[in-house]
Amino acid sequence: MAGTQAQTFATHRKFVPIYHFFASVVLLVNLVWAGWKLGRALLSADHAFTFDLVLGLFLAATLIVMWLYLRLFPLAVQDRLIQLEEQLRMAEVLPDDLKGRVGELKRGQCVALRFASDGELADRVREALDEGLKGEAIKKRIKSWKPDTNRC
Questions:
Q1: Entry pTM
Q2: 147 in a domain, yes or no?
Q3: Among 91, 86, 92, which residue's Cα sits nearest to residue 115?
Q4: Measured between alpha carbons, how far is 4 from 147 in angstroms, rounded to an integer?
Q5: Is the distance from CB of 127 to CB of 133 less than 8 angstroms?
Q6: For residue 76, what are the domain limits?
Q7: Which residues, 6 or more positions from 54, have their beta carbon under 8 angstroms from its beta carbon?
Q8: Which of 13, 35, 78, 116 could form a cystine bridge with 124, CB 3.0-4.6 A?
Q9: What SS3 state is found at 145?
Q10: Please, are residues 113 and 86 in contact by the beta-carbon 8 Å criterion?
Q11: How far apart are CA 55 and CA 30, in angstroms?
Q12: What is the rounded CA–CA span in Å between residue 53 and residue 72?
């Protein structure tokens, strides 16, 4: 990562500004606007309520749901792939007493352990298994951070 800041627990999250900040705000404003228009029509004395207003609210809500799943579905596949990669790495790196316990690790634990260097992986795996640590707790204990720059 020449010329860039080293990845750490504090900097490892990836934000795509146009997705996380622009699209989310536009979709939320659209949902509020559609709800406001429908509410105003329902409360108006001239009965300006139309099917178009209901459809507009449903479409706005559907766009929010689609926006969420556009992120969640690929993340689920990415996590499954990371879990497989980490299981392969652990088969090579871990001492024999831990290799037999790799199957006990949950997907979230494997995803967090990807940031542990080979030198400290055994200690982090042992802690995760023995203490039942979850993702964030595992990442916070990593001393020698192994960056993951191939994420979406």
A1: 0.75
A2: no
A3: 86
A4: 12
A5: yes
A6: 17-141
A7: 38
A8: 116
A9: strand
A10: yes
A11: 13
A12: 29
149 assigned to some structural domain? no
pLDDT tens by residue, 103-112: 999 999 999 9
Is residue 151 domain-resident?
no
CB proximity list for 86: less than 8 A, separation 6 or greater: 110, 111, 113, 114
CB 111 within 8 A of CB 82: yes
pLDDT digits (tens, 9 = 90+) for 35-53: 999 999 998 878 788 999 9
Q: Name residue, tokens 């990807």.
A: 114
**Tokens encoding 131:** 């203490």
Query: What would the two tokens of residue 124 be?
Result: 């982090």
| Cα 87 versus chain centre, distance | 20
In 10 A of CB 60, how many CB atoms? Answer: 20
Q: Token pair 């969420």 is at which residue? A: 68
On whether residue 115 sits in a domain, the answer given is yes
Tokens of 94: 């871990």
Q: What's the total number of domains in the chain?
A: 1
- Angstrom distance (rounded) from CA 138 to CA 116: 9
Q: Considering only CA atoms, give the Rg of the chain.
A: 23
Q: What count of residues does the chain have?
A: 152
> What whole-number distance in Å separates Cα of residue 126 and Cα of residue 124?
5
| Distance of alpha carbon 28 from alpha carbon 24, whole angstroms | 6
